[in-house]
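Homework help board

Subject: predicted structure for assignment chain

Our instructor gave us this sequence and asked us to write out the predicted structure in token form, then describe one feature. I got the tokens but I'm not sure how to describe them. Can anyone check?
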Amino acid sequence: MAHPVDASLLGPDVAESEFRDVNGIRMHVGVAGPVDGPLVVLLHGFPEFWYGWHHQIRPLVEAGFRVLVPDQRGYNLSERPPAVADYRISLLAGDIRELIASEGRESACVVGHDWGAMVAWYLACAHPQCVNALVVCNVPHPSAFRKLAPRRWRQIKKSWYALFFQLPWLPEWMLEAGHFRSFRAVLAKDARPGSFTETDLWRYRSAWQRSGGVGGMVNWYRSAVRHRETPQQSRVAAPTLILWGVHDSYLIAELAEASLEYCEQGRLVWFDEASHWLHHEFPDEVTQHIIEHCKKDKSKV
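My token output:
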């Protein structure tokens, strides 16, 4: 049986769970920090959930920030719409836009990893008024990806799984087989040893096996192909920090450099010993970069 995978995992002194109605869905959110603190929103990627940012929450609160850490739609305790079209990138970004508004705020420092970073990029382009500072971890600007990925054979090979996810039912069956054996292998073997503990993996499995399985998670990939959307504006006005683990198994490092072309105020920091999971592998360093970058725009939050 699945165990609770809400903010009680961290204890009431760190974060609390809330459910908020945003953009037509019910979203689970970990909430922490002073209500009047500058707002930071942390967006997880695939195949994680809000817990993917558990290393960062307490230090951000101690630095004075108000922190929101949602389960994005299709994940864990948030609602799982059934249709592939329900996972269009404009809707995913709309969820976060309304989440920010639910705090009575107009904007936030938005931080994303993996698919969470893709949502953050889109939000910063399509709704620039919502993002006063942007931090992205190991996902390129979507325009940089579209421009370079089809021309780089190494990237095409790295992206094979995204094509596999376009198939009906088979990806779900494979991912759920053996008590999510493939998911656990990706997290445990792809990252630096010790980055994911046995307790971490048990908590992830508890989230993955919740009612509805992994269909909503896989539908993010299907919708990206079947319902491709691009914002009218590709430039990012907000100060942008790109954090990139060099040993990423899914994305070539060239994409990080190419992303700077779309940032009016962009900076790239390499993590030479990190993989795709840099915020787990080097949590203190990643957290410090987030705090410093978001504090620069503290008066605007």
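Reply (TA_rk): Your tokens look well-formed. For the description, you could write something like this. Residues 118 and 178 are 30 Å apart (CA to CA). That's the kind of observation they're looking for.
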